[in-house]
Structures are given as C-alpha cells and as structure tokens.
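seq as requested:
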Amino acid sequence: MKCRVCREPAVIDIRRHNANFCSEHFLRLCRDQVARAIKDFEMFEPGARLLVAVSGGKDSLAVWDILRELGYDADGLYIGLGIGEYSDESGRTTRAFAEQRGWPLQIIDLREAYDYDVPTAAKVTKRVPCSACGLSKRHLFDQAAVEGGYDAVVTGHNLDDEAAVLFGNTLRWQTDYLARQLPVLPARSGFPRKVKPLVRLGEREMVAYCVLRGIDYIVEECPMAAGNKHLGYKEALNAIEAQSPGSKQAFYFGFLDRAQAHFAAAAPTAERSDAVELTTCSSCGGPSSGEICAFCFLVRRTAGAQPVALTVKGSS
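struct tokens:
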C-alpha cells in the first residue's frame, strides 16, 4: 500500500477518497481539510480568537492541535461534569495535553462552582443525563466566550457526528433542527458564534491523527451515554459506509448543498433561532427567554441535593 502523494509506504487508507497516505501526507490532509472547511463555510478570520471546547476525547484535542498548527490563536475550556472516574480521567488528560504544550486552558468544575454535577442533576430533574450535560456545557461555553471576548466557540464535532445527528433528525423529520443544522451558527443576542471545523474528517481519521501526533486521549464513551440514540445512528451509518464508502459525506454535504436552505426558509418564524425574543437572565445576566435562563433554573433546582454516587466505572 503506497501513499498517493509520494509513493512511500502508507499508514492509512481512506476509502471514501479511494486513497492511501503516509504519515506526513495524512497529517497534511487533515490540516488541509480543516483549512478548507474554515474557508468554505467562512467560519472565522485568520486573526480570530478561538475558544475550543475540550473534553479529553480525540476530536476536541485534535481540533485544538490542528488549529494551533494552522496558526490560530486558540485557547481551551474544560468543564468537569462530575461523572465519577470518567470525569477524573478526562480532566487529567486535558490538563496534561495543555501543560505539555503550554497552551491556555480554563477549567470549570460544576460541583465546585455551582454545587451540582451531571449525575445529581439527572436524578433531581428525572431526565436523561445528556440533557443536563448538554445544557450545562452550552451555557458555560457561551458565557466564557462572550465574557472572554472570543470570536467563536469551536467544538470537535466530526463528519460522523454530524451525519448521525442529521440521520436522526431526518428519521423523525425534526424540521426546526434541520433548519439550523449547519457547520456554523452565527453570533446572536448574547450568544457567541459556534463552529465545527472537523466536518470534513471522520472518526477514523481523528483516531489516526491523534496516534500519529502522539496525542493521548480518552477512548471510552461516557458511561452515562449508554442507550443514547446518537450512538445507534452512528452504528447504522457505519454499516452503510462499509458497503458504500463515501455515503456519510454524500449524505451530509448533499443535505447542506441541496436541502438545508429549504428547511430554513420553511421554518416558522417563531422557530428560527435568530427570531426568538430574548431578555436578560435576572441571575447570571445572560440571554434568556424567561426571567431566569434554563441553566440558572437547573442550578436552583439542584441546590442542596445530595451528590449521587455512581455505580458505573468508565473513562472516556
């Protein structure tokens, strides 16, 4: 197996491109694909200050590394979710990554800063853990970006992630979500710009990138994500991709090119993210559709609740 570029021994084959690459040219491919996504979707300008949402997983660490390699001013933000050994290990991994490179990393621990964690919030609200987790991360990333004067929040969502979300939204015809499923969400009403530079790279490529760059990352999924439909959608698309390489890319980018604008145009005005009338949260001062925002409501609701002891061991 020879590298398509230099004909030296290849370390990876990418079936959707019908090509093999050596280490040097594969890493260059990853950087080029990120640079192309940034340019094609006009994610941000060369001098932009970026806040990368890092979790200790391969995607968030890889996108931070690639952005720095491309010369961008990118800082990291890690949120300790309090999910037992999983959070302990993800925190250690993220801190080690940043310290080894001397890159700025902000850390917010939910239990220390707000007196709750994701397992406790899930028990109190009687909702799936991913609900409290997502709400907490969105609010804190947004708040840190706005207060820190960053031009955009960067997340590590890759092609597999976006195709799986699109698959689920299409199966249930979630037209409001389809209307705003884009690699870029513009800033609005107190919310920062949000971008996904890895949309042209898949899960397998991110694993290979981290291995070749010597990046230690958390491998396992979050122990509280068991049964998450998103994981099932990924498995279904993986089976399709195995039979027909390039299907995920064709599905996702075909939607962006041919369908997304139609959903956006047809979405009721009240459902459009830029048309919702917002006020200021009386507790945190952030944007809110009511007297207090959903995050502050969650903090109040969990006040005084005893921490939940996890019985599941895991590290991601």
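The two ends are 32 Å apart (CA to CA).
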